[in-house]
Amino acid sequence: MTLLRHAVRLVVRERRRSWAALIGVAIASALITSVLLFGVASGSTVTRRALADLPVDAQVVLAPGADTSAALAIVSADPAVRTVSAFELAHFDSAATSKSGTATQTSVGVLVGVEPSYAATTGLFTLSSGSMAAGEIVISRDLASNLGAVPGDSIVFVLPGGGQAPLRVSGIVSIAGADLLLGPIDAAHRAAGANPPANVAVMSRADLESQVLPKIPPTATATDPAISNGSAAGPSPVFAADPAVRRELHVQLDHAQLPGDPVAAQTWLDTVRRRIEKQGAGGLQWIDDASASLEPLAADLAWGQILFIFLALPGIFLALTLSRLAADATADATRRHAALLRARGATRNQLRSVFMGATVLTALVGSVLGFAFGAAIGLALFRAELAAAGLADAFFRAGAVSIALTTILASLAALLPLRAQLREEIAAGRQELQRTRAPLWQRLYLDGLALAVGAVVYVIAGGSGIHPVLNAEGNPTVTLALTSFVAPLLFWSGGTLLLLRVVRAILRRSGRVARVMGRLLGPGGELAGRSLSARAEAASRVIVVLALAVSFATSVLVFHATYGQQQRIDAELTLGADMKAVPNAPATAATVARLAGPGIAASTPFVDRVVYVGPEAQDLLAIDLATLPAVAPLADSFFQGSTAADAIDALRARPDAILVSAETAKDYSIVPGDRIHIRMPDATGNLKTVDFTMAGIALEFPTAPKDAFLVANQSYVAAQTGNDGISFVLARAAGDVGAASTSLVRRLGTGWQVSDLRTTTARLANSITSVDLSGLVLLDVSFAVIIAAVGVTLFLLAGLTERRRELATLVAIGAEPKQVRVSMLGESLFVGVAGIVTGLLIGSLVGLTLLQILAGIFDPPADFPAIPLTLIGAMTGVIVVALGAALVVADRGLARLSVVAALRER
Amino acid sequence: MTRRYAQRGIDPVVAVDSVDLEVDTRSFVAVEGPSGSGKTTLLGLLAGLEAPDEGSITLLGHDLLRLSGAERARLRQRRIGIVFQSFGLIASLSVVENVGLPLLLAGLPERERQARSRAVLEEVGLGSAFGDRVDELSGGERQRVGVARALVIEPALILADEPTGSLDEANAAGVLQLLTDAVRRRGASLVLVTHDPASASRADQHYRMRDGRLTAGALA
C-alpha cells in the first residue's frame, strides 16, 4: 500500500511528466475506441442497408392443404412481424397471343396472384401503365415484348397439365426487385443462381384462385426453362422440379427490433423462424430471405474489421510511441525524483515498483480519458448508426477492448525507457550520457531481415490477399488469407527500422549536418545541426514518428481515393453509364433519338436478352458498336488478354463476333476463333439457334452480371432473330448527372423509367466492400496529424528539458535570443522536412502495396491508383501548421527559461 | 543595485541588497561569501542575464538597462568571458568546438574559429586535447577548457563563478593561476565570486557578501 501511495503521489506531483505520458496514451486509446466504434457503426449500417433493399424478409410457404387464414393469423400474431401478405404463384408452360391472324408464342413463365394492397405494402409489382382490372392481368415488360402484347390484347396461357387460361391484358407491371420471390425456393436451385422468369403476369389472388388454379392438377410440376423451347416440356435433369403452384405468405419484420451486428441479426431472425414454424406445426416452411442476405455480410464484416484495424494499426503504434517520447521528454524529472527517493532510503526494487506503479496508473487513466474522447468522436460521427446498434453495448465493448489493450501496450512502451532511466540514476549517470553501442535490432540487422522476409512472403502470397467469391446462395462475399497481412506488416516494421538506421547514421555525421544548416540559417542553424547530432537518438525517433504519421495518412488517403474511384466505376458498371432509360412498352433502336436534348452528351441502344449456352441461361448483351464507346465506361481491366479498344475492334471485325465471360470460356473450353451455337428467342418468342465466333474474353461489361454473360453485335442479333426490339437506352451526361437525369425524366414522360448513377451508388452500398470509408479516413488522418504535432512538440520540449543548462550556458556566453530561436526553428525544420518528405514517399509506396494486397475488394480492379494531391497537400499543410504551433509552444517554454537558475542546477 | 525574488505566500527574498560595486579596468576583484549569500545573482546582474529591481549597471561604457536582449547578448558574445563552477561545457561537442562556441555565435568562419581555439587551448596547456570529447577529460582539464572558452574572444571582462569549486586543491590552484595570468596578459578585468578565502586572497580588491549585502575590506 505504501508503494502504491508513493506511485499515486508521483503521478500527482510530477504533473508535467504525467500529462505528457497521458496525452500519448489517450491518443492511442481514442484512436482504438473510435476505430472500434466505426466498425460497429459500419456493421449496423451494412445490416440495415442490406435489409432495407429487401421487399420481403421471409417467404412462408404453405404446405398443400394448409389453411391460409389460419397461417395468416399465426404469423401476424408474432411480435416481430410488421406485415403479412398472401401471395400465390402458378407456373405456365407457354403463353400465346394472336393479332391480325398472326400467332405469337413465348416460353415458360409465372402467373402471380396478390391482394390489392400488396404493391403498397412491399413496393413490388407497381404498375407502369394501364390498370389492374378485375378478372384481367397486368404483364411484365418482357412478356409484353416477347408477345408484342399491349393492354386490351388477350393471352392464352398453357398451364402445367395441359389446361389453358385465356386472360385479357389491362396494363404493364414492373417486376423489378421481385427476382427472389419469383424464382425457385429450394436451396439447390438458388445456390446454382437460377434465373427468375421474365415472363410474368400479375392478377388478383381471388382471380388466380378462380380462373387459373382449378385448371392445374395438384401433382403438376413446373417446367425447367433451360430445356423448354416451346415444343418439348419436361422436368430438369439436374434439379428437383418445383411444384406448379406455390402458396406463400410474405412477411416484413419490424427492423427496429433487429440487432445491428449481422451475426446477432441472423440469430434473431433464426429465433423468429423457429417460433413461427413451431406454431405452424409442420404446415409452414420459413424461407429466410433476410438471413440469406445477411450471411455474406457477417463474413465480410469480420474481414472488414480486420481491414479497419489494419488501416488504423500504424496510427495506434505511433500513438503509443508518443508514450515513449513523453518518457524521454520527462526523463530529467524521473531521474530527479528517483534520486530524491534514493536519498530517502528507497531500495532499487522499491524504486522500480513505485515507478512501474506510476506508469501503469498513468496508462490506465490515459486509456480511460482516451476512451471518453474516442467515444465522443464516435458519437459525433456515427450517432445514428451506433444508436441503431445499441449505444450501451457498443460503448461497453469498445471501452473494454481499448482500455485493456492501451493500458497494457502503453505500460510496456513507457516501462522500457524507464528501466534505462532508473539504471542511469542508480549509476549516478548524467543526462549527457550517450549510447555508445548500437541497439540489438541494429546489430542483428532485423530491419533488412524483416524486409527480406516480407518480400518472400509477398511473392509467395502472390501479392493479392483478398478475393471475392460466391457463397452457397450465390451472393458475393470476400475471402482473405490472414497471411496476406504478414507482408505489409513486415514491410512496415522493417522499413521503419531501416529509416531509423539511416536517419541515425546521417545525424551522427555532426560536422556535415551542422555545416549545411549553418550555411542555410547562420550560427543558429549550425547550433541546430550540432544539437540534432548530439540528440541523434531522440531526433531520429521523432523523424521516424513524423514520417510514419505522414506515410500512414498518405497511404490511407491514396487507398480511399482509389476506393472511391472504383466505387464510382462499380456503379457505372452496374448501371451501364451515367443514366439508363427503360421503355415501358416495346421499343426499337430508333427510339434513341428521343433521349437527345439538354444535358445528354451521347446515348446508345442496348439489348439484354436471356439466351442459352447449352442448358445454361446467360445474359446476351447486344450492343451498338458505333455509339456504345462514347457512352459506357470501358477499361482495359474489363478484358482478358486485350485492351478495351482491341476488344471493340474484334467485335467490329466480323458481324458474328462474340465476347464471352471468363467463366463461360473456362466451362466450355472456348478459345478465340471457336464457333459457338447459342439458343435465343426469335421475334415469335421461340428459341432459335444462332452461330457466333468467339472473339475474346470479357471479365466485366457495363450492365453485365458478375458471372455468365456474352457481348455481341446488335445488328447481327436483330438480323438473325428478326427481333429489333431493345431493352433500354444508356446515356452519358454532358455535365451534372443529377440535372441531366431530372431533365430526361421530364422529357420522356411516364412511358420510361430513368435511373442514374447517384441512386445506383446508394443502392450498391450494402456490402462491407462498399462501406463508406470516409469516417475511418477522417479519423485516421486526423489522428496522424495530432500524432505528428504532439510528437514534434514532445521532441522540442524534451530538448528544452534535457538541455536547460546547455541552453542557459549558450545564452550566458552570448547567444542572442534570435539565434536560440533559429536553432529551435532549424531543428524543427530538419525534423519536419525529413519526416514529411520521407513520409510522403513511404506513404505512396505503402498505399500502392495496400492496393495490390487488397486488390480483390475492388470490382473491377483498379487500372491506376488515384492520388488525391489536393487532400495530401492539405494534410501536409495542416501538419506544417501544427509543427509551427509546436514551435510556438517550445518558444514559450524557452522564454520562461531562467538562465541564472538553470546555471545553478547541478 | 537590488534584486528580489518573489516567493508564493512569503516575503520576497532579497538576493542582492543595495550593492554598490565598481570594477576598474585591468583589476582583479574577488567577492567572497558563503552559499546563498547572493554571489551568483550578483554575477548574473553584471553579465546582463538578469535585470536589477532597483539601481543601474554600467558595463564597459554601456548602460545595461538601456540595451535590448540582443544587444546585451552581443556584449557578452564579444567583450565578456564567463567561467562556470560546473564548467558549462556541452558534452556532445569536442574540446575545440566548445572553445569556439562564442566565435560561432559571433558568426566567424569555421577556419578562423578553429585557429583561434587551437591557439588558446595551447595557452591553457590542452594543445593535444582539442579533438577530444569533453566527457573524456578530467575535472581540471574541463575547467581549463571553460577558461579557454572565456579567453577565446579576447574579453575586456571575465566573470568567474566559483571556477575552482568543483576541483581538488592542486587543480584549483592551477586553474586559478592560469586564469589570473591569462587575464593579466590580456589587460582584462576579472571578477571572481568564491566561497574560498584562499582563492579570494589573490585579488586586488576584496569584497565580502552576506545576505545580499556587499562589504568592502580584507578578509578576516
Write the layout of secondary structure elements.
The complex is a heterodimer of chains A (906) and B (220).
Chain A: H1 2-13, H2 15-52, E1 58-62, H3 68-77, E2 81-92, E3 94-99, E4 102-106, E5 109-114, H4 118-122, E6 127-130, E7 137-140, H5 141-147, E8 154-158, E9 164-173, H6 179-182, H7 187-191, E10 200-204, H8 205-212, E11 245-253, H9 262-280, E12 284-288, H10 289-329, H11 331-343, H12 348-389, H13 391-426, H14 440-443, H15 446-461, E13 466-470, E14 476-480, H16 486-508, H17 510-521, H18 523-534, H19 536-575, E15 579-583, E16 587-588, E17 600-613, E18 616-623, E19 639-640, H20 644-653, E20 657-661, H21 662-667, E21 675-681, E22 687-698, E23 709-713, H22 714-721, E24 725-726, E25 728-733, H23 737-748, E26 752-756, H24 757-764, H25 774-802, H26 804-812, H27 817-853, H28 869-895, H29 899-904
Parallel strand pairs in A: 5-10, 7-9, 18-23, 20-22
Antiparallel strand pairs in A: 1-11, 1-12, 2-5, 2-11, 3-4, 3-8, 6-9, 7-10, 8-9, 13-14, 15-25, 15-26, 16-24, 17-18, 17-25, 19-22, 20-23, 21-22
Helix pairs in contact in A: 1-12, 2-10, 2-12, 2-13, 2-25, 9-10, 10-13, 10-19, 10-25, 11-13, 12-13, 15-16, 16-19, 17-18, 18-27, 19-24, 19-25, 19-27, 19-28, 25-26, 25-28, 27-28
Chain B: E1 3-7, E2 10-16, E3 28-32, H1 39-46, E4 58-59, E5 62-63, H2 69-79, E6 80-83, H3 95-99, H4 101-105, H5 110-123, H6 139-151, E7 157-161, H7 169-186, E8 189-194, H8 197-200, E9 205-210, E10 213-216
Parallel strand pairs in B: 3-8, 3-9, 6-7, 7-8
Antiparallel strand pairs in B: 1-2, 4-5, 9-10
